[in-house]
Amino acid sequence: MSEEFDKQLKSHINDIFDNYEDTSADAAWALLREKYPSKDKKRPLVWWYSAAAILLLCISGAIWFYYNVSNDKTIQYKTDIAKNNATVNKQINRAAIVSSTKKDTAALSTITTPVVTEKTVHSVKPVSITKSGRSIHNVTFKRNTSRAVAVKKLHTAPVIIDQYATITNQQNSQAFGADTANENKTIIGLNQPIAVTKTSKPGDTKDTVTNAKVAATAKTKPEIKKTTNVAFSVYASSFVNYAEGSNRTVNFGGGANAAFSLSGRLRLSAGLGVYRVALKYNAVPLSAMYNNQYLYNTPATGSGSSGGSSSVNYNSYQADLLVLDIPVNICYLFSKSGNYISAGLSSSTYINENYLQTYTNGYQAQSGYNTLQDIKTEKHLNTFNIGKILNLSAGFGFPFGKGYRLVFEPFARVPLGGLGYDELKFGSAGLNLRFSFSK
Amino acid sequence: MQLPPGITEQELVRQCKNGDLKHQEMLYKHFYGYAMGVGLRYSANRDDALEVVNDAFIKAFGDIENYRTDKPFKAWLRKIVVNTAIDKYRRDKKHLMNVELDNAVHIGSQASILQQLNANDILKMLDTLPPAYRMVFNLYEIDGYDHNEIAAMMGISASSSRVYLARAKEKLRSMLQEDKEHERRV
User: Residue A175 sits in which domain range?
Assistant: First the structure.
């Protein structure tokens, strides 16, 4: 008897509480957000820190890149020449440099063209250093320097090092040691670093190399013209916003960019821009509906939490956004005129987001109280969309004084996903007037 | 609460795994009623139940990565709500006062048979039980835990769990019997 009662009680409680409904979900959610607000607020902060870090990195990179690369080309040649003049005094046009000593042999090096040692070799003709002696083992140097010579660059012709070769500079006691190569034939191409290490042992000092001479010519090249590696620009833009279901509106914006040279024709451009987006829809976009569950699910009587949407008739939906845009684009330059095309992605956050929905209450309308009501949503820096806008543009530049340029840049921003709090898919197309300058 | 067209529970959970706040809100509101149903059975009053439910949702959102979508979300959430309620019970154990049946309230004149009991009636009945009895009754009879599990969860022995359950059921029976007598007299 009692067991039967227990079963019935259990079954009844299960039935009732499995389908339990409670109408206080909205208030409870508000309470939960109040009690645990951290995630909502911290998330944008994290994005902000990330964005700031990226921006800082870009700026630091630009500065470093600018000062290093632009100076490098001129300084490098100047210092090379100075060092060579100071340390290498001899020039040998054709020389056989290796002779034998007490024991046996020597290697003969033949240097066909002037060679500049120390750091850089600028030779005009191919250099070939060959072994002509019998023994390979006992090649040493007149000066017992243990320092290895690193020949960093060879700007012109390839060098062929055939087995052991030695290069010494008799007159310069400071820096010049020797270089030897492996038995394997090595071909060093243009602009490839050469590392040649000394292989002689202290015990081999008996063996000497006589008549070693080194050809050294510091052939000065004309200074390379300093190229501009970073260009800065500021711009103002006017454009038309577009979105499915929305009227088109004209808006304005502006910003600043820095473009870094990646190669001859490619540039990486990054910057910061602000622009406004105003959209007016005749129907509420689906994504925006998700944010208004109360309206969507609540009947006009308003107290419940479940029901249909038939009681609410939406009249219009407006969005007004102030966008903070962080574009990163790749530009391809066509010619010296500075015309280019560019493509890239923008990340964005929203300084202000205002959404306004107007609706009429169907039940009230039936009762003769058909009044227009609205819901306003306002957010500040609430959302951060990473890489959700595709940027496409073409620039037509006109020189404007020394180092300045005026660029007309038609552009389009294509949304790759929902943007902002209500996840609206909007884009824009218009014209940037860009004032570009480089140091 | 109904979900908007085109969005399923799986999609909702997937979005919540990405930490999307809007979808968390939708998930919360969708399962709020169900969670409250569980929370109310374990709590002495509505405020406590809400606290349990909200704490449970926070745990659920934080741990949703570990939720396996091949199992019903309701069952997973129910487990979290129950565990949260148990945690709260253990936390508040010192301050809980045992209410004797002498103070029991009338369930209502219509409670002549079980089937006529609504959620409020059941909650009133459960409210009259001492907290430990109520916990054990819910865990064993409604949520399907065995006595060993209950013992581990509540920090009591399995035999105590059996005793509490027996007493809870006895008290519920006598309460309903009393009501029946009352109705007969009226």
Answer: 90-215
